[in-house]
Amino acid sequence: MTDPDGFPAVPKYRQRTWIGRTERQHRAVRRAARRGRSHPDPVIAKAARDWARGVLAPSRRRTRGLWELVLALVGDPFGGTLGTTLAERRVARRILAVEPPATEDR
Questions:
Q1: Cα separation of 79 and 57, whole Å?
Q2: Is residue 2 within 8 Å of residue 9, measured between CB atoms?
Q3: Could you give the number of structural domains in the chain?
C-alpha cells in the first residue's frame, strides 16, 4: 500500500513530525537525499517529506523588501538566519526530488 506520492503508506499511530526526530535521523535523511535516495525507514521519510512541503509551501512569508533583508543581516551579521533559511530550502528541494523506492509486485 502506498500514499499518493508513491511512497510506502505510514499508519497514523506511527507518524511523528520532523521536529520530534533526532539530529542523527535528520543527518541520515539529508545524506540519503544528497544521494538521490529516500530514507529506508518509511516513517522518517514521511516526516521529512511533510517538513519539506511545509518549508517550500507558497503560503510561507516572503521578505517584503530590502529593508527587512538589511534588518535580518544587522540582527545576525554573519547571515545565520538568512543562511539557515536558504539551506533549509535546498534540503527540502532535495528531499522532495527523491523518487519513491521501487516496489516488488508479487
A1: 23
A2: yes
A3: 1
**For residues 19 and 99, what is the distance between their CA atoms, to the nearest angstrom?**
23
What angle in degrees, to the nearest 10, is found between the helix axes of 23-34 and 80-97?
60
Is position 7 within any domain? no
Give the end-to-end CA distance of the chain in Å, rounded to a whole number.
13
Question: pLDDT truncated to tens, each residue of the chain (106 aa)?
Answer: 777 777 777 776 666 788 778 889 999 999 999 999 999 888 899 899 988 888 887 655 555 677 766 666 666 555 555 555 778 888 999 999 998 876 654 4
Q: Please count the other Cβ atoms lying within 10 Å of the Cβ belonging to residue 81.
A: 12
Whether 26 is covered by a domain: the verdict is yes
Q: Would you say 29 and 44 are in contact if contact means Cβ atoms under 8 Å apart?
A: yes
Give start and end residues of each alpha helix (H) in the chain.
23-34, 42-56, 66-75, 80-97
